[in-house]
Amino acid sequence: MPAIKLKEISTRAPESISKEKTKGETDAMLSELDDLQNLLYAENRHSLLVVLQGMDASGKDGAIREVFGKLNPQGVMVKSYKVPTEEELSHDFLWRIHSHAPPKGMIQIFNRSHYEDILVTRVHKWCDNATAHNRMDAINDFEKLLALHNNTQILKFYLHVSPEEQMERLKERTSNPKKMWKYNEKDIEEAKYWDEYMNMYEECFSKCDYIPWHIIPSDQNWYKEYLITKKVYETLKGLNMKYPKLKSDR
Amino acid sequence: MPAIKLKEISTRAPESISKEKTKGETDAMLSELDDLQNLLYAENRHSLLVVLQGMDASGKDGAIREVFGKLNPQGVMVKSYKVPTEEELSHDFLWRIHSHAPPKGMIQIFNRSHYEDILVTRVHKWCDNATAHNRMDAINDFEKLLALHNNTQILKFYLHVSPEEQMERLKERTSNPKKMWKYNEKDIEEAKYWDEYMNMYEECFSKCDYIPWHIIPSDQNWYKEYLITKKVYETLKGLNMKYPKLKSDR
Question: Residue B126: helix, strand or coil by DSSP?
């Protein structure tokens, strides 16, 4: 795929797009998604893995709530990856990821993921380039394993916000009582590494491309939700799933 | 590596080798192994994965008892892989394997392994050739992940018995009260597929070669135990491990 330059991609919806109309389309797809998820579960042949990556305050939590929160929670699992524990660090970096790979019939969301091992770790030089490149190869192999050996559909989303939008959202966390719990003064420090993060993300998009990335303009939540919903909807729809027939004898 | 032809490899020790002397050497290595394992645990930088494969009654259980049973059980974990459960089958074939990969400092034994997914499954045509070859690629990628990303030393042993020795051992299970619990009439049926198994093993040795296989002549337990002990001993010795120094301040 051609190299992705994040600076050249807008973080906003095109002006021509109507917010109201788009929200209506999102809702329509979401209600069909509920059926598609049921079908995924019933057919029990495929699974869906959704990887959400993005800078702090890029809207990962909101995407999970507004898109996947509308589905039957029995068929959706969410795993948020934080700083690895001591036990996790005593294994290869994909060990804690593989254990949460979705079984057939299920939708698994990763809020952050194995990609942190080639992003934050590189920005802070905890991981050298040779190791990072080996990890990229291992990530491609791993995603291939899930896709090829368990019919896992993998959707990788980068929530693309502008640094200005991020700063506004981080500041809101200091003033909005409902958001203060999310405030972490380290986030402001981390935001200073913006350009390094963008470089690392761009390399990750081009190298970890066995499964392609989707760049989601995310300054406006309604547009972000629309694009994610649309991609999930189209992916499940494209599986041409069928409800199993009644077992005639057993 | 050159193709392995199992028929051309003896299942017995060379005549020139003394049983008594060899047993003495095994014991000497085993007592050093105890120290090496302690060092592996203390240093906490490497891990060891031992994969045991072989036909029924080839002596896998005995190898575990006589070699690894001599070590501190706190540092050794054994996982026996049986027919996959329904939950395991809802994941890719390496999911149940990866979760038991050894953390740093530990020795993990696999009594049967992911290799069953390209052996018994192929012999009985539950898995087509294309799938089997994809699995072989996935196995190489997976073993590379463990080796490269967690310093895991992987030793893969094929316990090589003759069909005559196997049949004798299977029959002993019908008469020796201490072994009757192991008797399974299906084993006799399975033994009829001997040549197919040998073909599948040979292909597996040549294709799954990111980590090389060790063919262990296993008609005589003392020789089998000697060879496995020696390989494990040399592998751990070769790591040049050191006890960590006292932490001077914290």
Answer: coil
